Structure formats: structure tokens, C-alpha cells
Amino acid sequence: MVLSKDSLKIEKEQDVVLFRNRVKELAVKIGMSLLGQTKLITAASELARNMLKYAGGGTVTLEVVSANRTTGVRLTFEDKGPGIPDLGLAMQDGYSTAKSLGLGLPGAKRLVNEFDIKSTVGEGTTVTITRWKNAV
């Protein structure tokens, strides 16, 4: 069940800072632990920066969700970029097209409880992550 829903455009680096603050607000509002907040914000930052870098930006939908007597924060990143030609390769640890030391997609996946990615070359990519309030 969706308890609240909002969306933000990510078009420049300053938008990532505003987005991080919104994610923190939502996590604090539902009573997520400091560790949970840190993991969620770190994963969210990585995905927002990837969207900016590889797709020139996009939109993030921020939701407070409820399931099985707990609440969480679900973030959906949508872009109209070039897409990811080989998702399997992109999800491998250590893979980088940018020669960077970023977390990458697998690092972001490890920081959240639910992770889903869909990408079509030439159409864009959608990544949805959820971090539950009571998760370890």
C-alpha cells in the first residue's frame, strides 16, 4: 500500500543533493534506523548519479509504502537514456564503464531490501529499490 508519493526531476548535480535530503526526510519520518537511512541514501545517491551521468537525468518517484505491518521507502528511477546493453555484466561486481570506484548497480543492490532493474537499449532504464524500516 502506498502511503505517500512524490516525484523529483534529476537534471543537474544540485538536484541530487535535494533528492538525498528528501530521501532522508522520508526515512526519518517512518522511524528508520540511522544505519538503514545511511544504506538507503547511499544506494539512492549512486542510482541518481548514474542516471545523471549515463542518461543525462530522469525522474525519481519517492514513495512511503506499507506491507506486512511495516513501512518502507520505495524509490523508482526512470530515464530515457541509451539503456544498458548487457544487464548481466552491469550487475557484476567490479564492472564499470566509467573506470570509477562507485558502488555500481551491485553495490546499490546490496544496500537495499528489494531491487529491480529493467532496461531497453535505445529506450531507457527503470530501477526500483525498497528499504524496509525494520530490515537489517
Can you tell me about this structure?
This protein has 136 residues and is of the alpha+beta class. It has one domain (2-132): Histidine kinase-like ATPase, C-terminal domain (Heat Shock Protein 90), CATH 3.30.565. It is built from 4 helices and 5 strands. It has helices spanning 13-29, 34-55, 87-90, 104-110, and strands spanning 2-10, 58-67, 70-79, 114-120, 124-132. Strands 1-2-3-5-4 form a 5-stranded antiparallel beta sheet, with helices on one face. The protein is globular, with a radius of gyration of 14 Å. The two termini are 22 Å apart. The model has no long low-confidence stretch (mean pLDDT 92).
> How much of the residues is beta strand, in percent?
25-35%
Return the CATH architecture: 2-Layer Sandwich
Report the sheet with the most strands, covering strand number, pairing sense and barrel closure.
5 strands, antiparallel
**How far apart, in Å, are the first and last alpha carbons?**
22 Å
Kindly provide the name of the CATH class.
Alpha Beta
Strand order of the largest sheet: 1-2-3-5-4
Give descriptors for this structure.
136 residues, alpha+beta, Heat Shock Protein 90, five-stranded antiparallel beta sheet, 4 helices, 5 strands
